[in-house]
Write a structure and sequence with these properties.
The complex is a heterotrimer. Helix content of chain A is 70%, strand content 0%. Chain A is mainly α. The longest helix of chain A has 37 residues, at 102-138. A 6-stranded mixed β-sheet of chain C has the order 6-7-8-3-9-10, with helices on both faces. Chain C has a 4-stranded antiparallel β-sheet with strand order 2-1-4-5, with helices on one face. Chain C has helices spanning 44-51, 98-108, 114-124, 141-153, 171-188, 199-205, 223-227, 234-243, 248-252, and strands at 2-11, 18-28, 33-38, 58-64, 67-68, 81-84, 159-163, 191-196, 208-213, 216-222. Classes of the chains: A mainly alpha, B alpha/beta, C alpha/beta.
């Protein structure tokens, strides 16, 4: 019983694509990787809360992509006669203090949100992985120096540090993104380092060393793939924080500049109208809430699926 | 040879354990039947044979996704598969004890070893601290731990494998159980330490007239230590043997297993075990210990 | 072919230093199968790892084919010497396919013709091409160990270090792997250093063996003398007796050798 390979998941009734995805004898590397993704998907889709998160994020992506089709303008056209109108059939989310349709602004603002999130991720993940894996694997004074640098960035409250950077760099969306990235990368380095410390004495790493692999190759091909899951999970859970920091910067006027419909700036501009025309600041706030929650739920679901300790993937 | 009705401590009939897994039901134990007297009974098998699950099922320690079913598991007039949780708790530890492979997982890592033994003793007998401490030292001496006074102050991770096992044996024997189930108790130990631990088990069993179920993957060791051996494969018992009569094994699995063991004198290639799928076929209800 | 002289290996520094190996010396001739036997803590695995370059903190001298080994190893060294580890699951990267695993040494040493070599390697260890794109968790313990052996052999090293290659396997699977190792040695004229705690395995696989205890080599003897139950050193005698199964008298008379 023990020496037979673990029982295959495929059943007799599977044909076609499903059979290809469940076959126990994949013919190519491509098929093997597709199978892994498929099995992870099956595991993920069993978690209803995670699916809610995924749907929210997918909706965000769809809405951002279809923005020109769903909206009537680009959200910047001012129609001063129509200021501060409540939600109605003509303006689903009402209008703001300059008569701009809030629905349009929310939709176009979603692109900005995605832009911020994607750019931060693209900077933060590679930097965190690089610093963390090198520090964890090499140890000694390299580890000490890299970790002290990481600690310095970790010690400051995120928004304050972002403020400092933006003040130095000047306001604007790209600078805000850079500032956020600078304040966000440190935990990823810590996570990558922690994973690397666990992995570095594993026998498959020793085996790679005995095969003569260089340190660079080991870090890139052997260590990083095992750190990736934790880092990705942490990233999705951090998304909410990133969005809120961007919103905070926007609120303070240091992020996206007017007339860009960035959600945080919309809250800031609209806050004086909170009591009588609640929809002006509240609806962007709800948008931020929903998207943050979507990322959180997605992150939780991903953690359950990607945890390398849960055995088969 | 033991086995007379009044000397039978445990009577297992048609025991099965079934697990619900994400890949469908798995039958870890299928229709296992045997009796245990005041003797040393070995259960031998490779991984996946169901030997450990059999031991756990007797004590109701199967994981939550497992179902135990049996015609009966008779112990002292009770049927352990039909008895309530409360009753079972009274049996576990007090009447039927279990030691496992790695003592470090069974001992509380943050409490000193002496304290754990003393507490177990107090809970069982209601003695006071001083008495419990005295008995602890006494018990450590019984399991041949030198410098017991120093050992009582150690934490489990500071204690070597062999000593840890002896401490576990001491703890498990405090309530003076009728049956001891040992699940691979010496597999993680060096060969010389193994001998010492087995000698202690040997003494304990003899002195108290306990029944011992010794679960292992090592056929030769079990044959040299136990009185009778059950050979398991695929959740079923393939064969029952008297320990001294290994060479008279009849079942092809047992013979195959014996043949593929390297010995000091084997020089040619080892015989490879050819697995016959027929061995996995259900043997049939009511299989008893034929082939004795 | 291999000369180890006065090897010492230390872990940790200062007062917490542990001397895992304290002056081990032995020689292995070309084409020989040499066993290193000992109980836990004897230092046998450490000797192997030091040879494979996995330890920095060692002293004494190690020579392979007359060339002394230094603190660091050049990649070319690893074409002469490869290692198989004890844990079949731990020694294969969980996220790499079997194809990736077997290709790795070829990439590192820039050896071409990967496709053919990989298929040949699989065949040599008795596995078919259908295993190529599976992941390690889809294989059984014995199959994984075969892959580990294939990976070690794919660059044709003349020397193989085997660190308890069958200790984690079922007895029936052990037999298959041991047979495989013997066949490969015969076919390729390999030199083996086999570490094990199991005297029967070593007796079956090796020509000569060294017994280690507490970091030192206690005795070197040929397999014939072992089989004839004629070791010299009392530690070896005790080990031999203990390996034969439970014996009450033997249990009573155990001595401590430190």
């Amino acid at each position: 019983m023990s020496e037979m390979a673990p029982r295959d998941v495929q059943t007799r009734a599977d044909t076609g694509l499903k059979a290809w995805l469940l076959s126990s004898t994949p013919d190519s590397a491509f098929q093997a990787r597709c199978q892994r993704v498929y099995l992870s998907w099956r595991s993920f889709s069993r978690n209803p809360i995670a699916m809610v998160g995924l749907i929210i994020i997918l909706m965000l992506l769809v809405v951002a992509a279809l923005a020109p089709l769903i909206t009537s303008g680009d959200g910047t056209g001012q129609v001063l006669q129509d200021r501060l109108l409540p939600p109605s059939a003509a303006h689903w989310f009402g209008t703001d203090q300059l008569g701009r349709d809030i629905f349009d602004r929310i939709i176009w603002g979603s692109r900005i949100t995605l832009y911020i999130v994607a750019l931060v991720a693209v900077i933060v993940v590679p930097v965190g992985l690089l610093v963390g894996t090198v520090a964890g694997y090499l140890g000694g004074w390299v580890d000490a120096i890299l970790m002290r640098i990481t600690d310095i960035f970790l010690a400051f409250p995120r928004l304050i540090l972002a403020l400092a950077f933006v003040s130095a760099l000047g306001p604007g969306l790209e600078n805000a993104v850079l500032a956020i990235a600078l304040t966000t990368w440190s935990p990823f380095a810590r996570i990558a380092r922690a994973e690397t410390l666990t992995i570095r004495n594993a026998e498959h790493i020793l085996a790679a060393r005995v095969q003569g692999a260089s340190t660079g190759r080991i870090l890139l091909h052997h260590v990083t793939p095992l750190c990736l899951s934790s880092v990705i999970v942490r990233l999705t859970l951090d998304m909410a924080g990133i969005i809120l920091t961007a919103a905070g910067l926007g609120f303070l006027g240091l992020g996206a500049q007017p007339p860009l419909p960035e959600w945080g700036a919309m809250i800031s501009d609209g806050r004086q109208y909170l009591l009588d025309q609640w929809w002006v600041p509240t609806i962007p706030g709800i948008a931020i809430l929903v998207v943050s929650m979507g990322f959180n739920l997605l992150g939780d679901g991903l953690r359950d699926v990607l945890d390398p300790r849960s055995g088969e993937g | 040879m033991t086995g007379q009705a009044d000397n039978t401590l445990l009577d297992v009939k048609n025991l099965s354990v079934r697990f619900q897994t994400t890949k469908g039901p798995v039958e870890a134990v299928r229709g296992v039947s045997f009796t245990l007297g005041r003797e040393r009974l070995g259960i031998v098998g490779e991984s996946g044979s169901g030997k450990s699950q059999t031991g756990r099922a007797i004590l109701g320690l199967t994981a939550k996704n497992g179902r135990i079913s049996a015609e009966h598991v008779r112990f002292d007039g009770m049927d352990l598969t039909r008895v309530g949780d409360q009753e079972m708790r009274k049996v576990r530890g007090a009447r039927i004890s279990m030691i496992m492979q790695d003592p470090r997982y069974s001992l509380n890592p943050v409490i000193r070893v002496g304290e754990q033994i003393a507490e177990a003793y107090r809970v069982h007998t209601g003695a006071n601290r001083r008495e419990a401490r005295r008995r602890t030292i006494e018990m450590l001496n019984r399991v041949r731990i030198r410098e017991a006074e120093k050992v009582v102050n150690l934490y489990p991770h500071e204690v070597s494998g062999g000593m840890g096992q002896r401490i576990m044996i001491a703890m498990m024997l405090i309530p003076d159980p009728d049956i001891l189930i040992a699940d691979e108790p010496t597999s993680a130990l060096d060969v010389t330490v193994q001998l010492q631990v087995l000698a202690i088990l040997d003494d304990m069993v003899r002195e108290r007239g306990m029944g011992l179920i010794f679960i292992s993957h090592d056929l030769n060791l079990v044959a040299s230590f136990c009185d009778r051996v059950l050979v398991m494969y695929g959740g079923q018992i393939m064969e029952t043997l008297d320990a001294g009569k290994l060479h008279e094994a009849a079942h092809p699995y047992t013979k195959g297993l014996l043949n593929c063991l390297p010995t000091l004198s084997s020089a040619r290639d080892l015989a490879v075990l050819e697995r016959d799928p027929a061995w996995l076929d259900p043997i049939g209800a009511g299989y008893s210990e034929a082939g004795r | 072919m291999i000369e180890i002289d006065g090897l010492t290996v230390t872990f940790g520094t200062g007062s917490r230093a542990v001397r895992a190996v304290r002056g081990a010396s032995f020689r292995v001739a070309e084409g020989e199968s040499f066993g290193l036997v000992g109980e836990s803590g004897s230092g046998k695995s450490t000797v192997l790892r030091a040879m494979a370059g996995l330890n920095r903190d060692w002293g004494g001298s190690m020579k392979v084919r007359g060339q002394a080994l230094g603190r660091t190893r050049e990649p070319a060294f690893y074409r002469a010497l490869q290692m198989v580890f004890q844990d079949p699951f731990g020694s294969l990267h969980p996220r790499h396919t079997i194809n990736d695993i077997l290709k790795e040494p070829l990439i590192i040493h820039r050896i071409g013709d990967a496709e053919t070599r990989i298929l040949n390697a699989l065949e040599e260890v008795g596995l078919g091409p259908e295993y190529r794109f599976r992941f390690p968790h889809q294989l059984s313990g014995g199959q994984r160990q075969r892959i580990a052996i294939a990976r070690a052999l794919i660059i044709n090293p003349p020397i193989m270090l085997l660190d308890e290659p069958t200790s984690a396997l079922d007895v029936s699977v052990q037999a298959e792997i041991l047979n495989l190792l013997r066949r490969l040695r015969r076919e390729h004229g390999l030199t083996y250093i086999l570490v094990s705690h199991d005297l029967s395995v070593v007796a079956h696989m090796c020509d000569r063996l060294a017994i280690m205890n507490a970091g030192r080599v206690v005795e070197e003897l040929s397999v014939e003398r072992l089989r004839a139950h004629e070791p010299d050193h009392p530690y070896t005698k005790q080990l031999l007796r203990a390996s034969l199964g439970y014996d009450r008298a033997a249990a009573e008379n155990l001595a401590w050798f430190d």
